[in-house]
């Protein structure tokens, strides 16, 4: 079992408030976030961006291990994730995480690649955590 930690601090309230996020590893160290970074495109991060990064990374690693178990040694996998935040019922809800994958896997058939990718999507820990629609588009490069 592993336990990873991060913390958030927010000073002020509402739109005028400003926050920062710090991770134990130090990758994020007082990284700014707030209303402006979440909704107005200001520099900094936001929770949905971090969820998208976590989902893309977790899925891609799960797929890498699935391909290795199936006997493939690879070239590369690249995944992007687009996390959608929508206003619903007087609040906000993450409604979707759309994964887009491109893989270079020598010797694999497209249908086998799709099957292994779909299993990785279902079984990656971040996919299991998310309570929203998850889609997966995939393609193989020659």
Notable features of this structure?
single chain; 142 residues; alpha+beta; GMP Synthetase, Chain A, domain 3; 2 domains; three-stranded antiparallel β-sheet; three-stranded mixed β-sheet; 4 helices; 33% helix
Could you walk me through the main structural features you see in this protein, from its secondary elements to its overall organization?
With 142 residues, the chain is of the alpha+beta class. It has two domains: 6-40, no CATH class; 47-140, GMP Synthetase, Chain A, domain 3. Helices cover 33% and strands 35% of the residues. The protein has a three-stranded antiparallel sheet with strand order 1-2-3. The chain has a three-stranded mixed sheet with strand order 4-5-6, covered by helices on one side. A hairpin with a 6-residue loop joins strand 1 (6-11) and strand 2 (18-23). Helix 2 (47-69) packs across helix 3. The model has no long low-confidence stretch (mean pLDDT 95).
In short:
GO terms for molecular function: peroxidase activity. The protein is α+β, with helices and mostly antiparallel strands and 142 residues long.
Secondary-structure map with pairings?
Layout: E1 6-11, E2 18-23, E3 31-33, H1 35-39, H2 47-69, E4 76-88, E5 91-104, H3 110-123, H4 125-129, E6 133-140
Parallel strand pairs: 5-6
Antiparallel strand pairs: 1-2, 2-3, 4-5
Helix pairs in contact: 2-3
State the order of secondary-structure elements, H for helix, E for strand. EEEHHEEHHE
Count of distinct strands: 6
Q: Superfamily at the CATH H level of the largest domain?
A: K homology (KH) domain
Gross morphology: elongated
Q: Could you describe the largest sheet, including whether it forms a barrel?
A: 3 strands, antiparallel
Category from helices, strands and their pairing = alpha+beta
- Roughly what is the average pLDDT, rounded to an integer? 95
The level of helicity is 25-40%
Global Rg? 18 Å
Strand order of the largest sheet: 1-2-3
Assess the beta-strand content as a share of residues: 35-45%
How many domains comprise the coordinates?
A: 2
- CATH hierarchy, class of the largest domain: Alpha Beta
Number of helices, counting only DSSP H or I runs of 4 residues or more: 4
Distance between the termini: 38 Å
